[in-house]
Write a structure and sequence with these properties.
By secondary structure, the protein is an alpha+beta fold. The protein is built from five helices and 18 strands. Strands 6, 7, 8, 9, 10, 11, 12, 13, 14, 15, 16 and 17 form a twelve-stranded mixed β-sheet that branches. A six-stranded mixed β-sheet has the order 5-4-3-2-1-18, sandwiched between helices. It starts with a strand and ends with a helix. The structure holds the ligand N[C@@H](CCC[C@H](N)C(=O)O)C(=O)O. Pathway: Amino-acid biosynthesis; L-lysine biosynthesis via DAP pathway; DL-2,6-diaminopimelate from LL-2,6-diaminopimelate: step 1/1. InterPro entries: DAP_epimerase_DapF (IPR001653).
């Protein structure tokens, strides 16, 4: 077995385990493995577990080869991988990511339902980052290709830009996505969520992910959009985030920590063909 593939609400990831498979994490290799025509195909690679003392570290790679600080669906998937491979034998453990440590609780004996304390969010421009003077970026006007949009920006370890609209669609996410992701206001690029508030306990989002493009679901996007809606005063602290691939439950605790609960599905474990493997090893 060289890799395992899982999805969380249609957001699919390949887990490559450095304890089992030597893999050069070059931009070209990541792009090839994630490519849906020339490789295995996925919305990213989860590279781990990397053991540092007693800690378990995870690296999250986007299909364009960039490294993400956090991924909500990625963390839930990786938690199930740790259980499937016998790396953990408790229902509660921590994982270190570039965007901080997260705390996981397996709510199902097979790891099919996972809750994660994703940490706390910030709206501060310097932390996200968003260019310009130091401020909270909440309901602020951004010029976008001859249009004005209202943005609220959030970091939950990785950066997000939320745009609330009455009508949202895949087409609109694909139109706004590249413009927002690469806008000069966002020096580290950014993930986009188009947000529609259904009622105080339900929101709907369409997502464009930094380094990945349009995806069917995103855990950190769910946390970001729910936190933005809560900050704007239009939802309660416990809510459901509906996405094209399914829904995630979000609880915003009084201490500011955001808890995300959602499913994980196993797809298959596989081996790279000798031909693809030679290709990957040669660069
Ligand atoms: N799908 C993820 C987010 C993955 C990282 C993102 N593309 C970024 O670059 O920040 C999720 O479920 O959170």
């Amino acid at each position: 077995m060289d890799f395992s593939k899982y999805h969380a609400l249609g957001n699919d990831y390949i887990v490559i385990d450095p304890n089992k498979t030597m893999f050069n994490l070059t931009k070209e290799n990541i792009e090839l493995v994630c490519h849906r025509n020339f490789g295995v195909g996925s919305d990213g690679i989860l590279y781990g577990p990397i053991f540092e003392g007693n800690n378990i570290k995870l690296k999250i790679l986007n299909p364009d080869g960039s490294e993400a600080e956090k991924s909500g669906n990625g963390i839930r998937i990786f938690s199930r991988y740790l259980l499937d491979q016998g790396y953990v034998d408790t229902t509660s453990f921590a994982i270190d990511t570039l965007g901080g440590q997260v705390h996981v609780t397996l709510l199902d004996p097979k790891g099919k339902l996972v809750k994660v304390d994703m940490g706390s969010v910030t709206f501060l421009s310097d932390s996200i980052p968003v260019a310009g003077k130091s401020r909270e970026v909440v309901d602020e006007v951004l010029e976008l290709d001859n249009r004005s949009v209202k943005i609220t920006c959030v970091s939950i370890g990785n950066p997000h830009c939320v745009i609330a609209k009455n009508d949202i669609s895949e087409e609109l996410a694909k139109e706004y996505g590249p413009l927002i992701e690469n806008h000069p206001m966002f020096p580290n690029r950014i993930n986009l969520q188009l947000l529609k508030v259904i009622d105080r306990s339900n929101i709907q989002i369409e997502i464009w992910e930094r380094g990945a493009g349009y995806t069917l679901a995103s855990g950190s996007s769910s946390c970001a959009a729910a936190s933005a809606a809560y900050k704007l005063g239009v939802v309660n602290s416990n809510l459901k985030v509906h996405m094209p691939g399914g829904s995630i439950d979000i609880d915003i605790n009084p201490d500011g920590h955001v808890h995300m609960t959602g499913s994980v599905s196993s797809v298959y474990s596989g081996k790279f063909s000798e031909e693809l493997w030679q290709n990957l090893m040669s660069r």
